[in-house]
Structure formats: C-alpha cells, structure tokens
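R.M. (postdoc): so does anyone remember the format we settled on? I'll just put the structure tokens first.
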C-alpha cells in the first residue's frame, strides 16, 4: 500500500473527548473513527488489524474441530422471552413501524438462537458433541460507553457454542478451549492472558472463567498468585486490600499453592461459560442416549472480543510516540520510508514479492513528519532509504532505538525470516 493513496491520515493532536490510551492513539493514527459514544468505524488500517486478529481466532477455533457459521443480529423477542432475558438492561429493543411495543432485539449474544437451530439437527447421542462459532457484530445498551474499544455499544465478537451429552464431556471441551486454544490465541496476538475464576450466573452451570490481561487501564480487579498464577476476580474473591482469606486460606494465601496473592488491575479479553442445560430446556433441545432415553443437551459458550484484543494490545504496547504493534496483528509488517526524493519503487516491489506486507511512504513530506507519523502508526519494522545511504537501507525495529545499515538484499532476508518464523 502506498501511503499517498491510504484513506485517512494522522491527526496531530489527541481527540478532546477521550481519556483512554487506546482511543487516543487509534483515533490519532487513523485506525478508527468515533461516530458516537461507544460506536466506532474501523478505517482501513484498523480493519487490517481486526482481520489479523480474526484470522488467528479462526485458525485456533478450527483446530478444536469447531465449525464457522453466521447468525442474524436481529432476533424475535420469543428467543429472549424463553430464557427470561428479554428485560435484561443491556438489550437493545426494536419497535416495528406499525406496532407500539418492541417485538425484536438486536443481540449481544446468541445462546438462544443457537439452541433453537440445534433442535433441528440433534436427535441422537451420535450427533454429539459438536461446536460452532461465528465472528459477528454485537450490540449492547451500555450506559457507560467509555475507554475507546474497551467498553462499547457495538463491537465485534467471536462467540462459540458447544453441545454435549454430559457435563463430563462439556468440561473436557471447556478446558480444551481454555488451554491450548484460547491460550494460543492471546499469545499469538502478543498478549499474556491470565486464566481467572469468575462468578457464575442464572444461566451457567457453575463458576465461569475469564482471560485477563494485566493493565493499569483495566476496569477489572483480580487477585493473582505470584507463584503459580492462580487468579480470581474480585467479584467472587474473599480477599480484600487489607488482607483476608480466599477459599479458606489465611492472610491472602493462594488456595492452590499457598503462595502470596496480589491485587492487580486488568482487562478482560475473553470468557468461557459452562451453560449446562438451561438453554436446552428452554428450547426442548434433547437427544436420545444409548439406552433410548431422552436427555437435555449440555451446552457451553465461549467469547472473545476482537476490538478488546486490539485495544488491549495498544494499552500494553505503546510509548510516548505512539503504538508498538505486535508483529502478528500489525496492519503491515514493514514501513518503507523514502527521503530526499529517492524512488523506492523497486524495493517496494521486492518486499511485496517476498510476501512482506509493506506500507510505502512515498509522500512529499519532511523526514521529521514521516518519522513522527511512523512512530505513531507503530508498524514493527522501519526501512529508510535516502541519498545519504547510497543504495543501502536503514533498518530499525519500532521497539528498538538503534538502527542498522544493510543492503537491500540483507534487509529483505531479515524480514522474510521474521515472516517465516
């Protein structure tokens, strides 16, 4: 991509109504555009990042045997009525033009839809287990939309639903999703996510689990063991900032290894829920077991917020000059910057031929402007060509201070090796 043709441009100052780092840097860099509170457009650079995250998620979900599908966001009210969720505060309700009362909602989740669909295709234990997922826009009537992409009213989410003959089989798949699947997703996105015990609810079989990334920008408070990394959300923990006990321990001891628990701020990037049979019972989703007896299907659900992953990466990886993208989710791997009227078309083509995604700054701007914008955009590798380099390339990683001078061939090989790792 030639930067002279890139839709959107860098803004010189922070947006006035944003306080979160991810919102400031993503808006300034032209990754997202704020349409209203909690609602953003993903511009070409931001969409490339989101697509990289989606690709990683798809690969890891497919590896578990889950199948991708796509469901509607507009739901008839009978779905939420069946499970008692029609009057939940977060529901956006839709009133048809010829009616006075809402009869549809635009959904933030799809347990009900998926359970009803499954009634048409599950009848025997031989049909189970199976899992299906989608990546789709969700809607949440969030009264406190804030913190950029961390708390929105419209957001992209991967939601997966699994169906089983027993709680034992659910727990098998549940922990397969937790590790290795979710663990790999977040690691590949450059994030260290902590598996955290969280509260259950009216529609879960037991306690749930969250995947939390430590960050001062986080709205969640968790307690983490410094020894074994057992963690639990403050909402269910018996610990307090003054000390106390958790799960029967003393003086804030870890219930797993008796190590010391520490209070941390964190961002939730994913969650998993053992649903049990409540949705199955609401939609009469049953199967015939080996003895010919009819039993309710046992369900689980598993979510990842794509925008949250993107925002969390920005919160975790930035400096005073801008974003520092992890390579796997960066919009481009290399930023080629031509200075002093040098024509870098040949190097641009060679990088592309080597399979390297590159943003080519071919604009007529000063070196200072180009470097400042490059730092803000945060592309992992910077290639600079100028008359002073006499045909060589200055290569610098975004997270390093020192640059190296090398031949074009050496520079391309360095990035090619990075791509193929």
């Amino acid at each position: 991509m030639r930067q002279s043709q890139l839709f959107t441009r860098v803004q010189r100052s922070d947006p006035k109504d944003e306080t979160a780092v991810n919102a400031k840097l993503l808006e300034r860099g032209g990754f997202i555009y704020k349409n209203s509170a909690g609602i953003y457009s993903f511009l070409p650079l931001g969409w490339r990042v989101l697509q990289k995250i989606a690709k990683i998620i798809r690969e890891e979900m497919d590896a578990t045997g889950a199948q991708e599908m796509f469901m509607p966001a507009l739901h008839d009210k009978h779905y939420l009525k069946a499970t008692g969720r029609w009057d939940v505060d977060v529901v956006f309700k839709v009133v048809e033009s010829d009616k006075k009362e809402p009869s549809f909602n635009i959904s933030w989740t799809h347990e009900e839809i998926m359970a009803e669909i499954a009634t048409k295709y599950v009848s025997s234990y031989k049909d189970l287990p199976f899992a299906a997922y989608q990546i789709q826009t969700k809607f949440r009537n969030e009264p406190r939309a804030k913190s950029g992409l961390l708390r929105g009213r419209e957001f992209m989410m991967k939601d997966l639903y699994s169906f089983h003959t027993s709680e034992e089989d659910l727990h098998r798949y549940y922990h397969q999703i937790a590790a290795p699947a979710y663990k790999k997703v977040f690691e590949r996105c450059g994030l260290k996510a902590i598996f955290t015990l969280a509260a259950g609810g009216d529609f879960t079989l037991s306690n749930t689990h969250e995947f939390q990334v430590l960050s001062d920008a986080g709205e969640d408070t968790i307690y983490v063991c410094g020894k074994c990394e057992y963690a639990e959300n403050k909402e269910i923990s018996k610990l307090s900032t003054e000390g106390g006990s958790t799960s029967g321990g003393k003086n804030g001891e870890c219930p797993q290894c008796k190590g010391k628990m520490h209070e941390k701020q964190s961002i939730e990037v994913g969650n998993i829920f053992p649903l049990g049979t409540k949705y199955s019972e609401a939609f009469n989703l049953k199967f015939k077991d080996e003895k010919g007896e009819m039993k309710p299907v046992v369900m689980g659900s598993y979510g990842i917020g794509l925008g949250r992953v993107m925002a969390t990466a920005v919160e975790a990886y930035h400096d005073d000059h801008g974003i520092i993208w992890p390579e796997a989710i960066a919009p481009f791997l290399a930023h080629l910057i031509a200075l002093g009227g040098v024509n870098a078309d040949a190097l641009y083509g060679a990088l592309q031929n080597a399979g390297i995604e590159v943003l080519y700054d071919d604009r007529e701007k000063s070196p200072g402007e180009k470097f400042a914008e490059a730092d803000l955009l945060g592309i992992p590798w910077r290639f600079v060509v100028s008359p002073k380099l006499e045909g060589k390339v200055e290569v610098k990683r975004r997270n390093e201070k020192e640059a190296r001078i090398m031949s074009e061939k050496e520079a391309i090989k360095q990035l090619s090796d990075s791509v193929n790792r």
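R.M.: ...and that's the designed sequence above, right after the tokens. Also worth knowing: The two ends are 23 Å apart (CA to CA). DSSP finds ten helices and 23 strands in the chain.
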